[in-house]
Amino acid sequence: QSQSASTRRGALIVVEGLDRAGKSSQCEMLREYLSKGGNAVKYIRFPDRTTPIGQLIDSYLRGSANQDDHSIHLLFSANRWELAKSIEQDIASGTTVIVDRYSYSGAVYSAAKGNPTLSLDWAWLPEIGLPRPDICLFLSISAEEAAKRGGYGAERYENETMQTRVRELFRSLFGRQEDIAVIDAGKSLEEVSIDIQSVVADCIGRLDATGPLRT
Ligand code: T5A
Ligand code: NA
């Protein structure tokens, strides 16, 4: 038993959702829950604004630099690729990795701009081959609930037109991506956390932890 325990991999858990759905709060609560359960856990978020590519993304989001739509899209993707090896290594060594936003945000926010040469299909291509999540928790919240959690901030994309398109595009992804669990994020922090815990416990229970990450 101890032999197989040493080769068990961690799970790759992605948390996605609209702005102010509670992703970061829930990632933190999930991290705590899994740690208490004796799991090695790591939390990462995209964009990772600390790398050189992340710094370019940060100035773009803050509005201090402009970028061609395709160019910034590829930088968001490159920001995931530059961490791909380290995610794979963590998972292989038995650490569960919780990721705050991933390829789904990547494809959806870029496609939501309505650029005629930047379709959802085009946007998805550079994501192919990245470590594939065991589960993606999509935190779903209505525009009304989101508004109660505070007005739009100053960053690019934090406006109503963009948010409405993002909402529609996320919904269209549910049809084509398996392994998305839609969570009602309009409930209290605690209630949402409990729903997430049960989906994650179920996913980890079904996981073939001696096999590799799915491709
Ligand atoms: N983007 C991102 C791309 O265009 N391409 C990409 O490839 C990627 C990865 C920055 C932007 O970049 C875009 C998408 C974004 O526009 P970000 O830094 O993740 O992405 O965005 P943030 O601003 O950090 O995150 P959000 O605004 O989306 O917030 P969260 O993480 O969903 O929400 P959270 O947990 O910070 O909570 C927000 C507020 O609501 C309260 C919290 O206390 C907090 O005040 N709250 C609740 N209140 C009541 N009930 C609940 N259940 C609550 N849950 C949270
Ligand atoms: Na966040």
TrEMBL record:
The GO biological-process annotations, alphabetized, read as:
dTDP biosynthetic process; dTTP biosynthetic process; dUDP biosynthetic process
Pfam families named among the record's database cross-references: Thymidylate_kin (PF02223)
| InterPro entries in UniProt | P-loop_NTPase, Thymidylate_kin-like_dom, Thymidylate_kin_CS, Thymidylate_kinase
Give the first-level EC class, as a single word. Answer: transferase
GO CC annotation, single: nucleus
Pathway(s) it belongs to: Pyrimidine metabolism; dTTP biosynthesis
Question: Is Transferase one of the keywords?
Answer: yes
Q: Domain Thymidylate kinase-like: where?
A: 15-196
Q: Tell me where on the tree of life, at the top rank, the source sits.
A: Eukaryota
Alphabetized, the UniProt keywords read: ATP-binding, Kinase, Nucleotide biosynthesis, Nucleotide-binding, Transferase
The EC number(s) given in the record are 2.7.4.9
Q: Name one GO molecular function term.
A: nucleoside diphosphate kinase activity
Family named by the database record: Belongs to the thymidylate kinase family.
> What is the name attached to this protein's record?
Thymidylate kinase
Q: From what organism does this protein derive?
A: Penicillium angulare
